Amino acid sequence: MTVIEVDHLHKRYGDLVAVDDVSFTVGEGEIFGILGPNGAGKTTTVECLSGLRSADRGSVRVLGLDPRADREALRQVLGVQLQESGLPDRITVREALDLFASFYARPVPAAPLMDRLGLTEKAGARYKQLSGGQKQRLAIALAMIGGPRAVILDELTTGLDPHARRTTWDLVEGIRDEGVTVVLVTHFMAEAERLCDRVALIDSGRVVAVDTPAALAASAGQTQRMRFRPSAPLDEAALRALPEVVSVVRRGPQVEISGTGNLVQAVTSLLARRQIIAADLRVEQTTLDDAFVALTGHSRSV
Amino acid sequence: MSALALPAMRMTTKGFRTLTLTQARLLLREPAALVWLLLPPALVVVFGNIPAFTTDQKALDGRSVIDVYVPTIAAMVPLLVALTALPLTMASFREKDVLRRLAVSPVPAAGMLAALLAVIAAIAALGVALIIAIGALAFHVKAPADPASVTAAFVLGSGAVFALGLVVAALARTSGAASGAGVPLMVLNFFFSGLYFPVAEMPRALQRIGEYVPFGAVMAAWSGDGPLWRHLTVLAAYTVLGSLLAARVFRWE
């Protein structure tokens, strides 16, 4: 079943085109990533999905509802965590959850939710006393308190330390395991690779590609790269003759080989036949990062 | 809130009650916003201790200065909270992206405004009650000659300035902007309520303008200057149009 349908979405602010042409669909129970550099139009897309902005052109349906026209009905079934949002300094964790719960027709109980998100011992703490990670976990809790069928999480782990980031990833997987559809907006490739079933790569307001992270990485061309220091002089022509090898580059004492398929096995058995040892062997898989560069023609760091 | 008003705001009773209680708690945890409220009761105490102010005077139809001043001082309370605490509180929520967070929850704009209004109006009612109690119990201030119309004008006048405060609360993007709009409106109302300068000594044209400023209309109703129905209509119009406008133009961010 399709939970979210975005069809040729276009949104501009004055002369600035924030979203040029974005289309994708999200299926039930998926973790769907919206991936792209800062300023690519991710947040505007999310704001249109959650009904904060109206689209200039194109259509958006979330759980069969129009986010603007069916605003009230949508609020009851869609949980949203926004990148820029806050709470009053003096509200406690427990009060915030009780307040938001009171707005929904069928809220989930606050206590187990706090437990799952590691907020129980902070229940009486005021918002401004919370750490960045605790604030983010509270934001997830508030997005979940209404018992939503889908949640949008915008730049969830930005500003978190690596440990808090990993904890948060586990929480997102937990949400999906409950059958809630997740739209995850991020500019961290590693986060998308770890969590998402499918991702939409967005650049300059346009969708560059929609696929699984693995398929996108594969589409970037060579999927593997190995680097090592041979113990004896190497016959490069013999290496190039292997069907798996695409390129061989020498960098001082090091050899770098890129290729596809069963590259590592093909190269190492050739070396074994010639009794050459590959010292300092490193093998790298092509990542979403490489895919992004290949697909957009520029580095993602802006 | 009546059972009728809640469906109109598209909010459940439970949601409205929780929001109102939360707003009240937050406001009481940050009482700095309410410090100005100490001024009016202090004024009553000061005036009450000036002997000349507590003696009855022929020029005032046998009433004392404090008899005349207590209603004016009481009027400061709704003016102060409606045009400072109310818009400042909402604008600071907006400034800190709290309203942006609430915008993606099911809470409606009218509900946000009404819950804060309920808290602020309760505080104003307590303040007015305190002033009347101090005046009556400590300084034997006499009740107005026509309590019904005085009360009617006061309640409608408060409604009118609360509605003005709601419009500012609905629009101001920052607490600075909320003060920038709220404080001049408050001073304007103070001016036409005769706090700085007796209304009777103002030029005639200015007096007529004042009758269309909420607390100018209240004072005119109290002094019997012009028809009472007209003043009450002006005040009711402010209340109704202001509240409807505020709910319509409410900014979430």
TrEMBL record, chain A:
SUPFAM superfamilies reported for this sequence: P-loop containing nucleoside triphosphate hydrolases
Cross-referenced SMART domains: AAA (SM00382)
Enzyme class, UniProt record, top EC level: translocase
Residue ranges of domain ABC transporter in the record: 4-229
InterPro entries according to UniProt: AAA+_ATPase (IPR003593), ABC_transporter-like_ATP-bd (IPR003439), ABC_transporter-like_CS (IPR017871), ABC_transporter_ATP-binding (IPR050763), P-loop_NTPase (IPR027417)
Locations listed in the record: Cell membrane
GO cellular component, one term: plasma membrane
Family classification: Belongs to the ABC transporter superfamily. Drug exporter-1 (DrugE1) (TC 3.A.1.105) family.
PANTHER family in alphabetical order: ABC TRANSPORTER ATP-BINDING PROTEIN
Protein name: ABC-type xenobiotic transporter
UniProtKB/TrEMBL annotation, chain B:
Any one annotated GO CC term: membrane
GO molecular function: ABC-type transporter activity
UniProt xrefs under Pfam families: ABC2_membrane_3 (PF12698)
InterPro entries cross-referenced by the UniProt entry: ABC-2_transporter, ABC2_TM
Protein origin, superkingdom: Bacteria
Membrane-spanning parts: 33-53, 73-93, 113-139, 151-171, 178-197, 228-250
Membrane topology: Multi-pass membrane protein
Domain ABC-2 type transporter transmembrane residue range list: 57-247
Entry keyword set: Membrane, Transmembrane, Transmembrane helix
Keyword Transmembrane helix (UniProt): yes
Compartment(s) of residence: Membrane
Major localization listed first in the record, in broad terms: membrane
Name the record gives this protein: ABC-2 type transport system permease protein
Species name: Actinacidiphila alni
